[in-house]
Amino acid sequence: MKPETQNLKPETQNLKPETRNPKLETRFGYFYKVLAIVSKDITAELRTKEMMSAMFVFSLLVIFIFNFAFDLRAENASTLAPGVLWVAIAFAGMLGLGRSFIIERDRGSLEGLLLAPVDRSAIYFGKFIGNVLFIATVEIVILPLFIVFFNLSIVIIPALVGVVILGTIGFAGVGTLFSAMVIHTRARDVLLPILLFPVIVPVLLSAVRLTAGIIDGLPLADVQNWLTLLIAFDLIFMAIAFILFEHVVEE
Amino acid sequence: MTAPTTSTKTGDAWGYALTTLSAVMILGALYLAFMYAAEASNLGTQVERYAQRIMYFHVGVAWIGFFAFFVTFVAGVMYLIKRTFFWDNLGHSSVEIGLTFMTMVLITGSIWARPTWNTWWTWSPRLTISAVGWLMYIGYLMLRGAIDNPARRARFAAVYGMVAFLSVPINFLAIRWWRDIHPTVIGSTSSEASGGFDMSSDMRTTLLFSIAAFTVFYATLLYHRMRLGKTAHEVETLKQQVLYN
Fold it and tell me: Theoretical Cys-Cys bridge with B76: which of A102, B43, B139, B161, CB 3.0 to 4.6 Å?
């Protein structure tokens, strides 16, 4: 036992000057802390890959199930495709959001996270950015497959990526807040979609409209108000969630 | 914990007064809606003209359906500042009443829509936002029901009540852009095609009176529900004392 502790001590001391840059920390202190939480989540996810692989397979399955249920063909793609894509994204995103805080609780690391000497809002932003990264990455991988299944043009991918990221920010903004709430309930992640879907109706509506506009090749001016609405929702609800988060995690 | 104070005589007097007042006002609103208000002469069939009278109650109920949500929002803000049982009780009571009224909105709306639009349900913005609001109320109650710790339950309910209420305007805007056939009843002549009409002064009086009647009715229900909540809270506290002391 003794030699081990002796070995550990100098190691941690050696690590400190390298990983912690005091100059950077004071200058970008807040962002530094947010990034620390994001990188912790990325590391944890890359080790198991359980959340992203589940979301990926699930959203593929949703597209398949829609195909069985509605007989999807290339001819009716522009009317049905946006809906199929966003149902897949919303359901898969719900899986990811549900895991976000549940894994912290199950591994007993939630208390550690809350005890960390950072502002509670830094935890919110860290978790939020992590969620957006995971969900958006999975969706962006799904997009080419979606294009293939509906026989759409590949040139629309960049625009779709933009809409997907904006939409993901929209529902992850409130979703991260609710995700931190539902871990303390008996129903846990069953409750998350029930709480979240009514609130994010505007995100789904505008994202579906924007996606349809992109598929139909409409000019930006035709869907401008939907884009404005989506960005406004993202900003407003990020701010609300940011303010309310500390009331959710206090204890 | 002091002795329960809810069943004092002043409390009872308020309860009786409010209950009596709302009974009189609801009966008055019924009389006005069926006897006093003129028929909507521009509507085509007899059934349509008769169904139109449900509007007086429908609008009054709908107003409370959304107003109750606003009360919950205010209660949520106040709870997070003050942390007292009163504000939690207010928010919870208001949601329960609001859910009942929102259910009535959906039912009365469907009864009216059947003869007028020839369908029970259509995805018009106000119907959709009412349905979404109804789901939010359900979510609020399910959230409360799933949390055991009272302080945490109050906190989370306050947070959810605030987020849900704040999403209603942007939700409504989005759904409105999505599609709209609901009649804009007041101050619009172009809405006749979708079942709207201009209101004469007797119709306006009836509508305003029934809105006032439902507001008093809401206050009455809120008063009784909050007393019930307070009593339940006191019983719970006494039970804890007996069990753990």
Answer: B161
User: Hey, is the C-beta of A179 within 8 angstroms of any chain B C-beta?
Assistant: no
Asked if B238 has any chain A CB less than 8 Å from its own CB, the reply is no
Contact A240 B163 (CB under 8 A): yes
CB contacts of B164 in chain A (<8 Å) are 198-199
Reduced to 3 states (helix: H, G, I; strand: E, B; else coil), residue A78 is helix
Total Cβ atoms within 10 A of residue B33: 20
Angle formed by the axes of helices A77-106 and A191-199, to 10°? 130
pLDDT band at A9 (very low <50, low <70, confident <90, very high): very low
Q: Give which of B73, B128, B129, B170 to mutate to test A binding, by max A Cβ within 10 Å.
A: B170
Q: How far apart are CA A30 and CA A24, in angstroms?
A: 10
Dmax over CA atoms of chain B, in Å, equals 72
- Do residues A98 and A189 lie in contact, with contact meaning Cβ atoms separated by under 8 Å? yes
Contacts of B146 in chain A (CB under 8 A): 185-187, 191
Distances (CA, A) of A245 to B30, B107, B170: 46, 37, 21
% residues pLDDT > 70 (chain B): 85
Contact state of A178 with B160 under an 8 Å Cβ cutoff: yes
Tell how far CA B171 is from the center of its chain.
18
What pLDDT does residue A49 have?
85
pLDDT at A13 (0 to 100): 45
- Domain limits of chain A? 33-249
Residues in chain A with CB shorter than 8 Å from the CB of B123 are: none
CA distance linking residue B65 with residue B191, whole number of Å: 24
Q: Which of A95, A198, A68 is nearest to B135 (CA)?
A: A198
Between residues B46 and A31, the one the model is more confident about: A31
Answer yes or no: are the C-beta atoms of A127 and A178 closer than 8 Å. Answer: no
Answer whether B152 touches A (CB < 8 Å): yes
B166 touches chain A (CB under 8 A): yes
* pLDDT given for residue A19 in this prediction: 55
Is residue B153 within 8 angstroms of chain A, CB to CB? no
| Domain range annotation of chain B | 51-244
* Whether A184 and B147 lie within 8 Å, measured CB to CB: yes
Q: Say if the Cβ atoms of A187 and B142 lie within 8 Å.
A: yes
Instruction: Give per-residue pLDDT as tens, B123-146.
Output: 777 788 889 999 999 999 999 999
Q: How many CA atoms lie within 13 A of A122 on its CB side?
A: 18
